[in-house]
Amino acid sequence: MTPSSTVSSASASGKSPSPPRPRQKKRSQVARACDWCRVHRIKCDNDHPCSNCKSRGGQCGNSGTMKSTTLPHAYREIERLRQRVQELELELELPKERKADNDKPVHQLNTPPSVPPGTSDERDPETRDPDLQLGGGRAKRFWEGIYISTARSPQKTWYGSSSVFYFIGRINAFLTSALQETHSAHRMLPNSASFLLDVPTTVSGGDHSQGGRLVAVPTDDPVNAGDYLTPTQEEYFLDLFWQSYYTSFPILDELEFKEHYQSLWATSDKERKPSALVDIVLAVCMQYGMARLPGVGRGLSAASRANVNDNDATIAGRWHYRRCQTLLSCEMESPTISTLQCHILCSIYLCCGSFQNMADNACSLAVRTAYMLGLHLEPPQTMPRREGEMRKRLWWTLYILETKMSMKLGRPFLLHDSSTTCSLPADDREIAMLSGSSFAPLGENVTWLTWNLHNTKLMLAARAAYTVFYDNVPNTSNVCNPQSITERLEAWLKGVPKALKTKRQNNGAPFSTDRSPLEIEQFTPLWLQRQRLLLELMYHNLCTNLYRPSISCALARAPHPLTDRTAMKCAAHAMALTHMMHQVLLSTSILAGWHEAFQWQWNAAMTLVGFVLAYPEGASTLAARSAIDLSVAVFENFGNSFAVAASAANIMSDLSAKVDLFIEQSQEKQGVAMQLATNCEESGDDSLINGNSTTAQAVDGPSSFDDETAAEITGVLAQSIDIFAAETYNDFDWSGINSNFSDRFTMPSYTVFKGQENGIPKKNTTSKPDQLAGDSVLVKVTAAGLCGTDMVLGHEGVGVVEAVGPHCHSLKKGDRVGWGYQVDSCGHCIECLQGAETFCPERALYGEKNLDQGSFASHAIWRDSFLYKIPEGLSDVDAAPLQCGGATTFSALHNVQPSDTVGILGVGGLGHLAIQFAAKMGCRVVVLSGSDSKRAEAIRLGAHEFIATKGAAELKVSWPLNRLLVTAAAPPNWDLILPIMAPRSAIYPLSVSGGNLEIPYMSLILQGITVQGSLVASRHQHRQMLDFAGLHKIKPIVEKFPMTEEGIKQAIDKLERNEVYYRAVLIPE
């Protein structure tokens, strides 16, 4: 249709033509709307300020600070701000509460104010700028970190949440809040060389020293030739390498290195050719060798020993390190295997010198060099096996070094499994012989290279657990649940051969947290002893680091049983490491000068400080506090050789005092309430419990309690009942504390027979808790033996478990158990650590502690660690007298040999049991008694010979006695007894008569006879005794009495008249 025809058509229709529609103008677009327009979703323009902002008179900008959010995002932001306001209000209220002394003890190590709580970037991932998100996807959330200065410069560097620096920051913030004192995290770091020097080579004496303080020297300062070693000195330090670092970092071929070193002297016998590898090996060995020298810091004050000077061992060999760096600069474009070896050893040298960031940089150089050399790939099949295995050892040693460095500093890993195809290095005898070393094999297919293989596997397991843990967003579930960590490390532990485990005394287990003393093999090569210790110490160090986030995690606002259990695991590993270090350093030279071991100890000590602050009244607190003192001794020992350790000792001593002050303050806050509860219990006044007394109202106010008061009541009750440890109440459910108080604490009771001043036992009752806590066990008593040392309560109990606390893992409901003389021990003294807790200075025994219940009761509450399962071969009645009488005699026979002749003096409550035990142990048993009246019974019980001593002028025996157990109350005629004792025999007085033991002195000297004290049995011996008795059908001869007031009185009266045959047992009605 043409335009003319269109007009004609319109005219024909009689309508005026409509004007053409104007073309719609294209909407103007801007590169990026301003903040205000973008948030309000209105049109913006390219002017600045835009028309909208100009008309409203507001600021126009494109900073991105005004985030566009959805309604859910806004709610989350409001909640975050509300929580922040509450935290700030709490900080303002805290000084007032401290001043009024009404605050409760702090049980969390809060995040330092300088560290963002929660994540490194508080913005929600969905509200971040898409341009800042990798790949346009959801941005990753990170754990907390801390910026802190660890060098001479005030410039701060970042350390992640797995680092000890971050943990120190939390401790510092906690102490500042708890003690109301200003603390600096910087002052909680040891005075290392990195605080005084930019690099280890910028130090010199003479004109460069000002006022006793080191100053930096220009890096182009010429090196004095006198700072280098003579050929003889070089040989001395190189020899150290093969017995120390070589077996821990097998990255050199000994034969090739020695050939290379000899070639450097080919043209001169006064000066060798330059070699970066030789220089860095010398630097590392000088650092180690100088630290091994004993007594360098002895006789100096603590402050003087902590000052770093140019003779400090941590920077020994610095000039060789500097020359190595100069030579390496020429190899950067064309690296070789030697270049990589130098970078690895440089990182080790810097790490031992406490130059943390320089060590990290050197490690990163080694990583890139390894990639350049293709070590991440499996060696070609055409390559000789010796060379291929060396490449593998280099790669995996670097992997270990980089993994340790990254986890230690809390920084992202540089090496990743996805980029490597290199298999683990071999450790067979063939490759061990091809390595150029002459170490003898250890048997069971174990060589000197096996340690490196299992050390690599340990690091792989730890890294896998670390990655799983820290790749998740921080929350209560992953902080509290240690399962992934435990499973991986336990799986690794199962594969460690015995040849790489250090044996323990008293049947202790290697790699455990039982803190049993080490059994150092005297004639084992030093390198093997060190390998064993380093492997176990590294295991404990890794466990400490992996479990440490559970200590007062900022996400856990209330006590969590699983969190507490994980925190105790962490402390247990830190204590195990500390006890090992203390024993090894103070009794051997195996780890003398080993800088990494010092750093592990520092990490463990700081962890223990945090644990004690977080759990001032926990079950492991006393042991952890004692371990802190041991760590000070370790630091002081190291401090004799290098200043950073002496500084660590000073810092830890100061922290120990602060820890004690905090614990004391926590205990004082509960003092008034504890005294009130005690007075109420003694007076029998139940008005406070009923809540209707004016006194109660005056002291406590209304009967409705807030959360803080409820927490205080936990401590009050824990202190008012002696048999429970205080910490066992931490797991009680106090959620209904604001309900009627008498209803909440009306507990069922059970019968207890208590002594009185007139000596007559009286029936009483005591409360039975609705819910057990900690490792407590409720036992229904089925039999109770009566012993001559009884304080009425009874300490020969047998019963059936009715209930167990949440921390009891060895017993269950229905188990038959027994208990004896000892109730508890400290668990951390030398006696406890050696399995002799019966001699613990802090032991809890009947007659020495204020204990109000024992086996003379219908029920008893006991710790599971002092309960012993009864074997099937023993009845309850037969097992009861064995808990003390059997344990006493068995302990005296513990190390007897089957060919020994054992004499038993007296056939009574102890004697008749001793005869049976000795006979079943295969010994010749000679019984000595006043008359022949018990001859037939003694022979029936197992005696091989019976001698009546009354009226005899001389005794004759078929075999001299190797051991004599004195079980009779009356003192023996030693003039008759000593002549039948064998040379170097032993006499065990077991009866408790209270008098003096008078024995001819000269006979003991001439015959070498020992008089040996013995006090019941340790827990290990007690368990052995019960198993032995059940297996060999050893049964006491008993008289039964009803467990009533009259029955107990009748049994005691008969025992005092010496008429019981032979043991009395009380049976509940």
UniProtKB/TrEMBL annotation:
Biased composition range(s): Basic and acidic residues: 95-106, 120-131
Presence of keyword Zinc: yes
Single GO term (MF): RNA polymerase II cis-regulatory region sequence-specific DNA binding
Listed Polar residues bias regions: 62-71
Cofactor(s) essential for the protein: Zn(2+)
Coiled-coil segments: none
Bias kind Low complexity: ranges: 1-16
InterPro entries found in the cross-reference section: ADH-like_C, ADH-like_N, ADH_Zn_CS, CAD-like, ER, Fungal_SecMet_Regulators, GroES-like_sf, NAD(P)-bd_dom_sf
Single GO cellular component term: nucleus
Family that this chain belongs to: Belongs to the zinc-containing alcohol dehydrogenase family.
GO terms, biological process: DNA-templated transcription; positive regulation of transcription from RNA polymerase II promoter by galactose
Domain Zn(2)-C6 fungal-type: 33-60
Name assigned to this protein: Zn(2)-C6 fungal-type domain-containing protein
Annotated region described as Disordered, given as residue ranges: 1-30, 53-72, 95-136
Species of provenance: Lipomyces tetrasporus
Pfam families per UniProt: ADH_N, ADH_zinc_N, Fungal_trans, Zn_clus
